[in-house]
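Listing S7. Sequence submitted for prediction.
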Amino acid sequence: MSIPAVEDSWARIEAWLARHAPASHARLRPPASVSDIEAAERTLGVGFHPDLKESLRCHDGVDLQQGAPTLAYYGPPSSVADIVDSTRFLRGIGADVEPDDVLDEDDEDYDELATYWHHDWLLITLGIGWQSSDGLFLSCRPGPNWGRPGRYFDEDIPSFTAWPSLRHVLADYADALENGTTFDGRTPLAVDGVLLWDDEKTTVPDPASPLALAAAAGEPEPEPPAPAEPDPVPGRKAEGQRLLMVRVRRSSPPAPPPMQPDVVFVAGITPEELLRRLGAIPETLRPRGRQRARESAIAPWAAYRPMVRAGTLGGWAYATQEGAYGTQDGVAAQLLRPEVLRRASAGTRAVALTKRGPEVSVTLTEDGVPNPEQARRVESPRENHIPVVGPAQTVLGLGADPWPGSSAAYTRLLAGLERDFGIVYRPDDDVAAELTSALLLPVLDDIDEDAHQYVTEVRDFDLAGLVERTPPQRLRRAIAAQLTRLAAETRIDGYGEVADAVARTGRGEPVDLTPDGPLDLRMRTVAAEAWAARQLLRGPGRWSEGPVTQEDFGAWVIRAEALRALREFVRLPVRAAAATILHQRMSVFWRTELAADLRTP
């Protein structure tokens, strides 16, 4: 199929803009003069490719004002002056950062992309920020890539696009405008006389469930102890050659880090009640020793959900988080989260001792309110890097305690619990004890009530103007309708309790978000699915065949975010919830649908 000439594609672009986006059409600049183009070539010492010359002879870029037409993420077309300024700027940076071992261009192994900025590249758009930090470049270097567009971004290496020429870029751009198809992954829209670009989001309808896969795997049973070796028979002599074993004394290996789990103590309740408050999953409740709990916590069965064991000390119930947890282990630490401590301390008080690398802290929460006067926090440097031969060289000391200062601080703060609260706890004392334990379905993060209060624009939409000119009740009904559409797009309305809640928002009725109620548990379960899917895709996981795909993970994240939007609609002022709901909408036609919703009485 033949590719239209540059001027033919520009004629189609102009016609579409004039008809559908006249404000953007007005930002097209007049043609560049031949003399201006030739002067730019002399200034830069580069012959412009014929496609670029033809494009500039149609329009010398655009006026960089509101409503200017852009090439989606690649930004507005550059004028001749923009090309000169950007190229000079990028050449200057390239001269400062260019490595000394770049091959000569005559070398057969020379790679044009191996430079920061090649002398014969021209930045022909101004990127998403309307400046020289990113955009499309055009190679004007004679050779196999002559006239080929590439992508430049200042935080990444340059690369050539799939388009073989600028003619192909402009032809695809014209096709996208005329047919409403995507260009560089974005869909063109004409809104209030302006060309906008938006992302049409998609999701898989039935993502693979990490939690279902975990349930099918089952909790591993402890291995039986190995049989003892038989005693040698006295008086029997081995025949033939004998192997002589010589014991060689070696230096003792470094002592392993001490056992110092995160622990929370809650006054006046039972271990079973404490587990419930922490979010224990009933079907995982059973007695476990520490070793069993830790092995189960890292098995596929756990699906990156936290494992805790609970016991009693005097008038306190206590719980410890078991197994590896923290950012690098994929299991979130629970006992330092304010949401968790607020639940645990309801009607009583909770004391938590936690250790996160260099930081050890004690917190007191009384009936959901932190008491800063009783808080203690100690930070210590990392010390498990040992010097080796050579100046300023170190290696990681395997097996050593990486935070000996933190370990000492933990011991001191643990002793302080006896003085301040009468709590006498020794982590080594309950190693073998079969304490009641369970996996947790983590409680939801708090909603930041201030995060969206001052959002004025969402996806190039004037949210502040909408809020200002729309009566509150009408605005709430319209955003509730948007929430209903979001629920359908993301498939969360397939959950009965969610469908009921969404219907209630549409009728202006209250929604029950009681902790541990059906809707709360559904939201937490979906959040746990998204978390587990993320961890399974982070690197070498615990699943041998990788049954969860990137598409599955994306679907769970979309569902979790949509459920968060529902929470915000129930909990926050409509303006704050609107920012989240409109941002999450998957259809690019949400603006048209919102206009219709606002007209509904």
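Caption to Listing S7: primary sequence and predicted structure tokens for the chain studied. The two ends are 51 Å apart (CA to CA). Confidence is low (pLDDT under 50) at residues 385-399.
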